[in-house]
Amino acid sequence: MSRSTDPEQEALDRRFMAAALRLSRRNLGRTSTNPSVGTIIVRDDGAGPMIVGTGVTAIGGRPHAETEALAEAGELARGATAYVTLEPCAHHGRTPPCAEALAVAGIRRVVGAASDPDPRVSGKGYAILREAGVEVTERVLAADASDQLAGYLMRSLRKRPEVTLKMALSSDGKIGARGEGQVPITGEVARREVHLMRAEADAILIGIGTALEDDPELTVRLPGLENRSPARIVLDSDIRLPPHARLVSGIGRVPLYVAANLEADVQKRLELERRGVRFIGTEVHDGRIALPELLDDLAALGMSSIIVEGGAAVARSFLDEGLVDRIMLFHGPGEVGAQGIDAPIGTDRIPPGFRKLREMRFDQDGFAEWVRTV
User: Fold this and answer.
1) Exposed, middle or buried by CB within 10 Å (0-12, 13-18, 19+), for 109?
2) What separation in angstroms does the CA of 277 have from each of 124, 239, 249, 310?
3) Annotated binding-site residue numbers for Zn(2+)
4) Which of 58, 62, 93, 163 has a 20 to 30 Å separation from 149 between CA atoms?
């Protein structure tokens, strides 16, 4: 690729890295223990930059994005620039490291976004490239990439998944009504956005109270994305989930985990296990499931991103334990009334240590997102 002046090159780098980040979202929540990375290969033979190869981490985590992009580019990769949303891997497995593959393919320049905290990779991927004579530019749109890869980074650094607390609040600060099951608070556009969030997560978590009151499915119901439904997790220390619950009936399509006390009713456990429910034996502290230990177990299962969807007691437990990393609040225009369940959080009651990341509107509904300051 011919070099432009520095400001022009910086603008090009940001443009193509933004495209790589959009590409990497394609398999969020579907790449097992590996992060969903995007790679775009660009060359310029004098007529302007042209994309000659694209790749995203495959479902299940292999092949990596760099391998996919190089295969698509073929010989056009020689002398080109590769835009990668995460530092290329440096460790040998069944295949050579991606950093080495980029160099062998003749890539002239690599532009990276987020750094990989994995000690097998951190700094080593870029070192392999530089030693091979490849020019490396680091940290282009690094903040955007780190935000998108937050689950992977959290599991790498703190050995637990990233926890997102998602709630829908009425105009009078309620999240539902007692004894009425699911109460619609937001409109169809906002609900579709929630389903898209689910499609990019590893799991959705609720308490047994919500499971019994609402009898939800917790699946993705957007046309064409039904197969993107994440695992469902229910906190149910005493195993009160009935075998006829909708969560159980849908188990053939989407996994269901129940976090239960090891001393809970054996017969109830066996009945649900026969129907395909997977149990996570948990420790109990003061009558409640020990959440830090549960998150350790979920990370061991390969989960990097968990959305906590309800209810108020579970949300408060995660908040009190300091285990919430991201807060997503939807606001509907209607009121629930005096019979409503008070939200444990609100736009004017965000815990210390969070910064507002974005605000949006979905038709008549508002939305705001906060992330924990690292």
Assistant:
1) buried
2) 42, 11, 10, 20
3) 64, 89, 98
4) 93
DSSP annotation of 26 reads G
Q: Where are the alpha helices (DSSP H) in 159-287?
A: 188-199, 208-214, 246-249, 266-274
CA 228 remoteness from chain centre: 12
Tokens of 129: 């490239």
d(CA 164, CA 246): 24
**Closest-CA residue to 39 (of 13, 15, 19, 59):** 19
362 closest CA partner among 190, 168, 171: 190
Q: Inform me whether the pLDDT recorded for 315 exceeds 80.
A: yes
Phi first, then psi: give them for residue 80, nearest 5 degrees: -95, 175
Residue with tokens 């996919």: 68
Integer angstrom CA distances of residue 283 from 237, 264, 271, 294: 9, 11, 22, 8
pLDDT digits (tens, 9 = 90+) for 73-98: 999 999 999 999 999 999 776 668 99
* Per-residue pLDDT reduced to its tens digit, 52-72: 999 999 999 999 999 999 999
Which residues are known binding-site members?
A: 64, 89, 98, 168, 198, 210, 214, 218, 221, 237, 309, 311-317
Annotated binding residues for substrate, as ranges?
198, 218, 309
Q: Among 66, 100, 200, 213, which one carries the catalytic annotation? A: 66
Average pLDDT over residues 144-154: 95
Averaged pLDDT for residues 239-260: 96
Active site residue 10: no
Mean pLDDT confidence for 246-255: 94
Average of per-residue pLDDT across 30-34 = 91
Q: Which residues contact 22 (CB under 8 A, 6 or more apart)?
A: 38
Domains, the chain, with CATH or none: 6-148 (3.40.140.10), 160-372 (3.40.430.10)
- Does 1 score more than 80 pLDDT? no
The structure tokens 């075998």 sit at 243
